[in-house]
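User: Predict the structure for this protein chain, please.
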Amino acid sequence: MKVLIFTDGAARGNPDGPGGYGAVLRIQNAQGETLEKELSGGYPHTTNNRMELMAVIAALEEVGRLGEPCEGLIYSDSRYVVDAFSKNWITNWKKNGWVTASRTPVKNQDLWTRLLDAMEPHRFSFRWVKGHADHPENERCDRLATAAADKVGWDLNDTAQPFTQASEWYKAGTGPVNKSKTIISSGGTLSSNGGRPSTADTPGSGAESFAGPLRNAADKAHSTAGAPDDQSPKTIQVRYFSDRIEKLQPPTNSANWVDLRSAEDVVLKQGEFRLISLGVAMKLPEGYEAHIVPRSSTYKNFGIIQANHHGVVDNAYSGDNDLWRMPVIAMRDTEIHVNDRICQFRIERRQPDIIFEEVEHLDDTDRGGFGSTGVQ
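Assistant: Here is the predicted structure, written as structure tokens:
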């Protein structure tokens, strides 16, 4: 089963103030309906980073209750969380006995190990999104997290207890009409066990009937939005022409570039031109185009330059045989092998319709002409 997860954490008076987390899970059931579930929780004494981690943990532990291995994407606005995986920090921490490169103990080890336990046997990639930038699901998670932090912070006598709450699964776009009861956890701080309730006490765990692939779930959930600044995940259909190249992976870097690989072995002499097969054809979302450029290491590794310097593929180039290629010129004798990463792409919104209006003068200040550093 494929799952999309969106998370956020919040803290009031960070560190050691009240905090909360929020998460939204999205799957598709056997009937093809996109279903969602909201999770949140609050703790009277915690930090923002621990709440960011708890949002991911709560979501993954809920995924575990689906009763089968899952795969998907986790969207977070926390560099602390995303970089731990995309930059392999967590691998090094484990290898070094949970000690950092500066030989200091890794903070929040209890939650990192709990997160890793919750990921088994699933396969999830992390993707960073900018917080407070009108990303619909991130804004939802932020509201859940801050509401939880405020709720647990209402107690002026410092006797508040951690709590978790979850909605039932509901059809995307309808809203969580059946909120579960709030569960009060033992312990007043989020320390070694995170104040987590037992699995048996957690409502909304009967999701065994929700199965099947997530077909265009993100697009369906936002089909009524259609706003130009909609930042919901986009589905790209991909046809592979070779089983020797690695499958495309959603980007985990902040610039959102996706690597493309050579689908053939190539030998070039200095000065020779070649259209190198990238082994894929794609149907891009309506209104988007792909921009293809070399990787920063392409020239150093292979001695080639991209002949058009910047390739553009629009979403009309989407037939079965519309194979993507990279036009290159060899600046030295070189060899490129199947699966070598030679370029990268990202999708951008297509330029809107424009109108040219002829005028006698432009009503702005000259900055010195092209090539100038401008008027200081």
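The two ends are 58 Å apart (CA to CA).
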